[in-house]
User: Fold Thymidylate kinase from Luteolibacter algae.
Amino acid sequence: MFIVIEGIDGTGKSTQAKRLAEYLEAKGQTVVSSFEPTDGPWGTLLRNSAETGRLSPEEELETFIKDRREHVSKKIAPALAQGKIVILDRYYFSTMAYQGARGFDPTEIRKKNEAFAPVPDLLLILDLDLDKALSRIGGRGAGTNEFERRENLSRCREIFLSLASESFVRIIDTDKSPDEVTESIIAALPTSTCGQQ
Ligand SMILES: Nc1ncnc2c1ncn2[C@@H]1O[C@H](COP(=O)(O)OP(=O)(O)O)[C@@H](O)[C@H]1O
Ligand SMILES: Cc1cn([C@H]2C[C@H](O)[C@@H](COP(=O)(O)OP(=O)(O)O)O2)c(=O)[nH]c1=O
Assistant:
């Protein structure tokens, strides 16, 4: 079972990824939790670039893909092959959204990724109004680029929501308490993965 959690910054992905892993472990499942960008060399380069200056659009896209190739081959594919539940905080849908917002075609990005990256069984898209998401993460990034940042995240949210009608996608409204969001996530799990108590 491969579960991916996506959404714009501040929607509660890390909070809910942790809660979902705890819930499944309490049910006796073996869970491998991970995230992108990873803490490997490419992911570290990407994280540092947020402070040292963003890479060019092409370089950035290629680096997210290199990071993911390594992540898939070293961690995701082996864990799935061992029958474990894999929970990811961000995956190639973030590339569709964020690099899509930077000018690339989300459909092309998807094709490029699905050539090597397994499609999840369940994609949970955490959704929250932009103002509420930004207020949850505080003033980070405020300043001269604030307008650009809002425009960007708004486009990212649109790209995420454009996936809503796909069979493996569930949109989770996170304008609720953390407990209520966790309940909605558990309700979205298939019964074979402890979806019902
Ligand atoms: N349902 C919620 N209601 C209110 N605050 C929340 C909720 N879920 C998470 N938060 C808080 O919002 C902030 C962002 O949450 P986080 O899980 O880090 O989001 P993300 O990983 O999507 O950026 C954190 O301070 C977290 O404690
Ligand atoms: C996985 C991925 C993340 N990102 C971006 C989204 C985030 O702004 C940033 C870092 O992700 P993340 O660590 O989830 O951010 P935070 O912990 O600050 O919420 O990387 C992309 O632009 N493309 C991608 O493919």
